[in-house]
């Protein structure tokens, strides 16, 4: 695959730009805050989309290396190296702001980049195990129409297995003093009957493995439900479904490799997007709280992952058509952050609340919005400058 698709970098940059705006406060509007528990806001979209496009980019990188004859041992080492660097950067970000030194007895271990690292490690290693060089779908005759589905089929079954394990643990694991299968926020939910059951099995596993002091202390449900136990939205159990989301992004990459005709690619993007959103809607019964598996970013629930993957396919379709097919949009300004995503993510976290991206302004929506837009624009300028100087930093 010799073509360089600007739409992929545009997709990544769009996700990152929204993420920076959200992390800087989003003007204080609720739409740019994470959901208190079940539901979906703009803030809940960007991290999963980043995981999705990581899967798409993964297969593009691997296929390039395989076609140049790279040994799989060398590729595995690169996977391990990148995962360790991402995890270490995540720990660095978690330690930011500890002016008197890091109190290791209270140090948070999970985090966004840690979730990226472990997801990448698992998905990339499995893909490497089953991968080989892909060819055009026309070479597969009558199977060409479904080749993007059946290619590397053991890989797909492995990730379906992850989903089954996640579902079984979520609904069958006994959690002391909590009803089996509880997936609520605890605290005042259900009239306070399950106050210490925040997150059900997911929260229980993290508290057992890491301890209460080493996970996130202020979950989004704390303010409304007055929860008293810590809960980490980037905990261990959710890694299984984030791997599945990354695999679905990898599926988009398979489509780009197997099918060279843009119409075939677009139809498949649209079909996958529609079906995944429909499956997510069925699981949550198209409601916020009344479904079998509600859409929940804190839990990385199956309905959440399916819905966000479906939206990812549709967004990728839009970017692909506008940027690479019809060329009516260059992808700017989002293309530039997409080319240096790790620099911008780490940089915006380390400068959060600092000059030149934050100032003491009145606590009004207008003032906060102006400051947060400026903070986001600052990093777009940095990305543009790096691109102008042909500086691209990755791990």
Descriptive overview:
- With 395 residues, the chain is mainly alpha-helical.
- The protein has helices at residues 6-23, 46-67, 72-95, 112-130, 147-150, 153-172, 200-209, 222-225, 238-258, 262-283, 302-325, 335-339, 341-350, 365-388.
- The two termini are 22 Å apart.
- 46% of the residues are buried.
- The model has no long low-confidence stretch (mean pLDDT 93).
The share of residues in helices is 55-70%
What is the subunit arrangement here? single chain
Please provide the ordered H/E string of secondary-structure elements. Answer: HHHHHHHHHHHHHH
The residue ranges in which pLDDT falls below 50 over 5 or more consecutive positions are: none
Q: What is the total tally of β strands? A: 0
